[in-house]
């Protein structure tokens, strides 16, 4: 059975790069009828952020990336947590000591800093301490770490399923720390022990971890375990081709959710960052992605995370993929957060229908059309100017509107066209001042559709306010 995993660290905002890697792990597991696990790598206590784990899990749930239960923890959809597995790592570190694949090192932080300055890195000097002496010093409680004893000379081969075989000279592989002096494991030890014990068969992660893979391969061999398959996905890039970072791009999944991006669209876009459909289409469901997925169609080029392309795709989902009723339902929290309201579900659906060609994120609807949901809407400078220029026309048209009984779009269209023709005006000379008065903007959907939706009472009240010299 194929078993994959995602292993985020709870050190801050849930990262878009985590979602990108999680998606491909999820897809590959589901493609093969396997299992997809979540493991919280929380052993670096200096960087641990309270609440970060819950935010990561909530973000994955929002994206529709569901994971399988961690059986050693229990409970529905419980993730693995490394902080709850510390005895396992110590046990395995000591096993490596017994097998001669690791050693205890007793340098103080000050000594290590001096060694790094002089040698450019740790030089393995504690290898020369006799094992009996090292064990005695450990029994006396002398602070120390446990390091990997890289076999030298020699080479280590890493097979990456996307790149082929990469050969590393063992002289270039450091004797990394496996167990820190506080009893917590480093990433390398915990990662390998957990992947083995959890039955992970396919390790799918970002390409930045490729340089650590020879260390992991050496650990698998030292334990006598089968080495999993490795797939190192290309990193997401900023527009300047540097690794995506919050200094240059929005990396928090919570930001995308708060800005009104749809989880389906973001998930679709993340898939496009590493994969292309056989027929070249850019919009597809998660199920279609799973059905079509092959590693042969994964590109190793550095994908550029283009926010404008994501906005375009999100707009396509709003206009062409989601049913109108679904868009109306999802936009409600954004309207409510802006202090806006609507008289009925039918009104909301019609408002969304009118505006749907004009917004690319859910948050943009209340920003672009507050006039559909409130009497307190702002005016642009151009709209104010146009309304003031057209006040004489508005004064003439007001009684006609007041007398109008048929308030349908067609009837309003006929009324205003006839009014303009009778006075030798172009329709725009009537419609634009009226549009400005009713919406505070000159960039709106069709005027007659807006008037029909607002209703006669609201239209006349807004027009009266404009004629009285008020804009709010």
Automatic annotation (TrEMBL):
Enzyme Commission number(s) from the entry: 6.1.1.17
InterPro entries: aa-tRNA-synth_I_cd-bd (IPR045462), aa-tRNA-synth_I_codon-bd_sub2 (IPR020751), aa-tRNA-synth_I_CS (IPR001412), aa_tRNA-synth_I_cd-bd_sf (IPR008925), Glu-tRNA-ligase_bac/mito (IPR004527), Glu-tRNA-synth_I_codon-bd_sub1 (IPR020752), Glu/Gln-tRNA-synth (IPR000924), Glu/Gln-tRNA-synth_Ib_cat-dom (IPR020058)
Residue ranges of domain Glutamyl/glutaminyl-tRNA synthetase class Ib catalytic in the record: 2-312
Pfam families: Anticodon_2, tRNA-synt_1c
Motif ('KMSKS' region): 243-247
Matches recorded under CDD domains: GluRS_core
Motif ('HIGH' region): 8-18
Residue stretches making up the Aminoacyl-tRNA synthetase class I anticodon-binding domain: 326-467
Locations listed in the record: Cytoplasm
Record protein name field: Glutamate--tRNA ligase
Record-stated family: Belongs to the class-I aminoacyl-tRNA synthetase family. Glutamate--tRNA ligase type 1 subfamily.
Binding positions for ATP per the UniProt entry: 246
Function comment: Catalyzes the attachment of glutamate to tRNA(Glu) in a two-step reaction: glutamate is first activated by ATP to form Glu-AMP and then transferred to the acceptor end of tRNA(Glu).
NCBIfam families: gltX_bact
Keywords, sorted A to Z: Aminoacyl-tRNA synthetase, ATP-binding, Cytoplasm, Ligase, Nucleotide-binding, Protein biosynthesis
Catalytic activity: tRNA(Glu) + L-glutamate + ATP = L-glutamyl-tRNA(Glu) + AMP + diphosphate
Top-rank EC class of the record's enzyme: ligase
Subunit field text: Monomer.
PROSITE patterns xref list: AA_TRNA_LIGASE_I
Provenance organism: Thermus scotoductus
MF-aspect GO terms: ligase activity
